């Protein structure tokens, strides 16, 4: 059985919901990432969202706001989705497809231990299965 932990990109670089989007963008550049988990600093890194490079552009810059003045909490929305490290890859795909998400935090013992991205899926899935995933996530509607 292939698990979430088997295919994830290990490690977790966090920002807090009070960090600026400028700080998030710099971290993304330095770490070559397109997304960062957002933690609630008052709850021992409790996952409260994920911020993407697209969020910074669409929800801040496109409105004429400065990333130096916007906080992560200004752009994160909804309840973050995640998967247990021991979950089967079929559960990973189901979670990502049903919520049409491209990145999924992996949790073990209540701590984030990694992230699964489209690139991780592309490396570990047969081409046909990855194509089906992409069809579900990118389908219009």
TrEMBL record:
Every CBS domain range: 8-67, 75-132
Protein name: CBS domain-containing protein
Organism in which the protein naturally occurs: Kitasatospora cheerisanensis KCTC 2395
Keyword Glycoprotein: no
Coiled coil: none
Claim: Ribosomal protein is one of the keywords in the record: no
Pfam family, one: CBS
Keywords, comma-separated and alphabetical: CBS domain
